[in-house]
Design brief:
By secondary structure, the chain is α/β, with parallel strands linked by helices. It contains 16 helices and 5 strands. It has a 5-stranded parallel beta sheet with strand order 2-3-4-1-5, sandwiched between helices. Strand 2, helix 3 and strand 3 form a beta-alpha-beta unit. Helix 6 crosses helix 7, helix 10 packs across helix 12 and helix 15 runs antiparallel to helix 16. The longest helix is centred in the last third of the chain and has 21 residues. The N terminus is likely disordered.
Length: 345
C-alpha cells in the first residue's frame, strides 16, 4: 500500500498518544488505534474485543499482516521485529496474548513502545488480570491509548442485559420472561449463554418466547432451584414440591436449591424495602427492570411479617442442609411449604 494512502488513513484509528481516549470501553466499542489494551478475566468478551480490532483492520486492508505473540514465552526483541517498518509499508496488527504472564523483556520493551508507537501498526495487548504487568498497563493508560475492559459478568441482571444485547445484534427480540428463563438455565457460563442465544436465533423465528426457551432448555431449568422458588413465592405449594422432587430425582444437591430460594426472597425484600421511594431508589438496587416489575406485583400478596417468616424458614433450611439436620431434603421441602403457605390468598 502506498505510504501516502496509509498516512491518509491514520486519523481514523483514534486514541493515539496524548489523546483523551475513553477508559473502560465495552468490547464492541473499541476501535483501531496504534495501541489497544484489552484487559479483564472474561475470556469471551476479551476474545471478541481482539477479534473486533483485527476485523476492523482487515475491513480497511484485506491484506493486513496479523502477528500473534505469546507474552508468557516472549523473547527479547520480538516486539521490535514484529513492529519494524516493512519494505512496502503494509499495515500490520500485532496481538500480544498473556500479558498477565509477561516476561521481564516484554514488560520493558512494550512499556517503551507504547510511549512512541510505530505508524501503520496496531498493537493489541491482551491482559487477563492481576498485578503482573501493571507498569505496562499504567503506561498504556498514561499515553491515552484506548482500553477495553472485560470484567466477569456475575449478576443475573447483567447476564440478562448480555442476552438482550446478543439478540439485538442478531436482529431478534426475546420476551423478558424468556430472558430470565434462559439466564436461569444456562447463565453460569457466559460462553454457554452466548451459544444458547446463537442456537435460538438459528433455530427459531420471530420473538423468542418463554415457551420456546423452555422447550430447548426446560430440563435444565427444572434441574435448578429457580422454578421451585418461583412456584413457592407464587403460593403454588403443589407445583413447588413436585418440581423440588424432580430436582432431587435428577441429582440436584439441596444446597443450591436453598440458595435459589434465598436469592428469590432477597429480591422481594430489596424491592419491598424501597417501595414508595420512587423509581430512583429501585434503580440503585442493581436489579433488571423485569425483576423489579415482577416483585412489585408479587408483593401485593406478601405482608412484611410473612416475608420475614419465609426468610427465617430459608435460613433454618440453610443451616439444616449444611449439617444441622439428618434429612436435608426434608428441610428444603419444609421450607418450600412454609414459603408457599405465607403467601396471602
Amino acid at each position: 500500500m502506498p505510504a501516502s494512502t496509509s498516512a491518509a488513513r491514520r486519523p481514523a484509528r483514534g486514541g493515539g498518544r496524548g489523546s483523551s481516549a475513553p477508559a473502560g470501553l465495552a468490547w464492541d466499542e473499541v476501535g483501531l488505534a496504534p495501541v489497544v489494551l484489552v484487559t479483564g478475566p472474561e475470556e469471551l468478551l476479551a476474545e471478541r474485543a481482539v477479534d473486533r480490532v483485527v476485523g476492523l483492520a482487515r475491513e480497511r486492508d484485506a491484506q493486513v499482516e496479523v502477528t500473534r505473540v505469546d507474552g508468557a514465552a516472549y523473547g527479547a526483541g520480538e516486539l521490535t521485529l514484529a513492529t519494524s517498518p516493512s519494505l512496502f509499508a503494509e499495515d500490520r496488527v500485532v496481538v500480544v496474548e498473556n500479558v498477565e504472564k509477561a516476561t521481564d523483556d516484554l514488560i520493558l520493551e512494550a512499556t517503551a513502545y507504547v510511549a512512541a508507537p510505530q505508524e501503520d501498526v496496531v498493537l493489541v495487548l491482551r491482559h487477563g488480570g492481576g498485578q503482573r504487568g501493571k507498569r505496562l498497563l499504567d503506561a498504556v493508560r498514561a499515553a491515552g491509548h484506548p482500553v477495553a475492559t472485560c470484567e466477569t459478568i456475575k449478576r443475573d441482571a447483567d447476564k440478562a442485559s448480555f442476552v438482550t444485547q446478543e439478540l439485538r445484534r442478531a436482529g431478534r427480540r426475546m420476551e423478558a420472561r424468556a430472558v430470565r428463563s434462559l439466564v436461569d438455565a444456562v447463565g453460569s457460563d457466559l460462553r454457554e449463554l452466548a451459544a444458547a442465544c446463537s442456537q435460538l436465533v438459528a433455530d427459531t423465528t420471530g420473538v423468542i418466547s418463554v415457551e420456546v426457551v423452555e422447550r430447548y432448555y426446560g430440563g435444565r431449568i427444572e434441574a435448578t432451584g429457580f422454578r421451585v422458588a418461583d412456584a413457592a413465592v407464587d403460593g403454588n405449594a403443589g407445583e413447588a414440591v413436585a418440581l423440588l422432587r424432580h430436582a432431587f430425582a435428577t441429582g440436584v444437591d439441596p444446597v443450591p436449591l436453598v440458595a435459589a430460594l434465598a436469592a428469590r426472597l432477597r429480591v422481594l425484600a430489596k424491592v419491598s424495602a424501597v417501595r414508595g421511594r420512587g423509581p430512583g431508589a429501585e434503580r440503585d438496587l442493581g436489579l433488571a427492570p423485569w425483576q423489579v416489575d415482577r416483585s412489585r406485583k408479587e408483593l401485593s400478596r406478601w405482608t412484611p411479617e410473612a416475608l420475614a417468616a419465609a426468610i427465617t424458614a430459608v435460613a433454618q433450611a440453610d443451616a439444616e442442609v449444611k449439617g444441622a439436620s439428618r434429612d436435608p431434603r426434608f428441610a428444603v421441602e419444609r421450607a418450600v411449604l412454609r414459603i408457599a403457605a405465607a403467601v396471602r390468598r
